Amino acid sequence: MVRSLLTLCALTLCALGGALCLAGLTAPVAYAQGADQETIQRLRDEGVALSDRGKLLEARAKFKEALDLDGEHADTWFHYGQTFQRRGKLDEAIKHYSKAIFLLSGHHKAFHNRGVAYWYQGKLEDALADVDEAVRLKPKYYEAWNTRASLLTNLGRAEEAMEDAGTAIELVERNNDRRKKPRFYVAAYHTRAVAGIRIGELAQAKSDLKLATEKAPEQAAYQFRLAVTLFRLGEQKEAVASYDAALAITKDTVTASGKRPNPLSNYLRARCIAGRGQAKFFLGDVKGALADLEASKKFTPDHAYTPLWIHGLGGTATDLERLSKHAYTKEGDKWIQQILLLYTGKLSEAELLKLAESAEDDDSKAQRRLQAHCYLALLAERAKDLEKAKAHYEKVVAEKVLGYTEHWWAKLRLEALKGK
């Protein structure tokens, strides 16, 4: 009787293992018998210490050794996944984070990091679902609030993003973690500022970025965003100074904070130099503006970040022809190419306005409509048809769309053309 019961139990366990395999899950594995838990903990601790020092391959080896001894520890899988994510191996990272979640469904950090990995893969909705779960599991997890704010900004939900970033800041302050976790604290101010810029909350964005640049002078991106905000507020001298400060941060910079500098990527460096050119133009330095715009192209030769309205007033037909020969790959770049065709006489006013309305979403349509009227106004200025130019600028101002450079530029040009 006892033997029969033992046989039945064995068959049941066998069937359960098979069912788990069929369901895509893994049945419990027989790891090293009587594994020394102190040894496993030591391996994990050593792995974390190596990871913190950037020695990811050595850290990964430690975590793998720990997993060979005990493969049912969720935290070890989580740390193991981090070593892949930080090397850009996102599929591997997602797989290991998923294992951590399978073993411990309440692992908020695994949900958060898997969400970030999905984000890097461009899967924004999947990313948001995971980060939502991280916030639900641990409402005081301010890093998740900040990550969700960035995701919401990218999804066009900037007002919600500002609220989430504000919550992240509040949580850090409430927990008195400003000194313990300064990076997250400052990052949340930057995140709120980026969302604010999107919806025209420029005064708030300026205040947030001032704090961010003071607390983290090694972050060139923060200086860049501050420059963009100052530019949109019409504070051009200050904008040029901030653009200069962002460009001055290189890998060899010795920062006031003593922290390792984080310079701009080539993409942001190109935008930074072009942005400085815009500010110089508004300060009356057309020659300096055009020089910056030309210099910006060497960092991203296959894309155009040149504000063509500067060429519209200060550039020559040759400048425009040369720009039109750029290799355009992005949808936005194709739109720029159409504007170049307008300037070189190969596209009519009606065709440009029709193209503006063909954008996929209302936000893009509004922005392109503003751009189209600005470029048409500048074309009219070149032809000395000031009444037509003013009419186009007035259409831009009438839209009352905040947060776009074109809106501010149109008001500035209308003021300059008064009485002419």
Describe this structure in words.
- With 420 residues, the protein is an all-alpha fold.
- It is built from 22 helices and no strands.
- The chain starts with a helix and ends with a helix.
- The model is unreliable at 1-33, 302-317 and 319-332 (pLDDT under 50).
| DSSP helix fraction | over 70%
Task: Calculate Rg over CA atoms.
Answer: 28 Å
Low-confidence stretches: 1-33, 302-317, 319-332
Output the structural class. mainly alpha
Amount of beta strand: under 5%
* Number of strand elements: 0
Shape: elongated
Overview features:
420 residues, elongated, 22 helices, mainly alpha, single chain
Give the helices and strands, then pairings.
Blueprint: H1 2-22, H2 37-52, H3 56-69, H4 74-85, H5 90-103, H6 108-120, H7 124-137, H8 142-154, H9 158-174, H10 182-198, H11 202-215, H12 220-232, H13 236-248, H14 266-282, H15 286-296, H16 308-314, H17 317-324, H18 331-343, H19 349-356, H20 362-382, H21 386-399, H22 405-417
Helix pairs in contact: 2-3, 3-4, 4-5, 5-6, 6-7, 7-8, 8-9, 8-10, 9-10, 10-11, 11-12, 12-13, 12-14, 13-14, 14-15, 16-20, 17-18, 18-19, 18-20, 19-20, 20-21, 20-22, 21-22
Write a brief structural summary:
The protein is an all-alpha fold and 420 residues long.
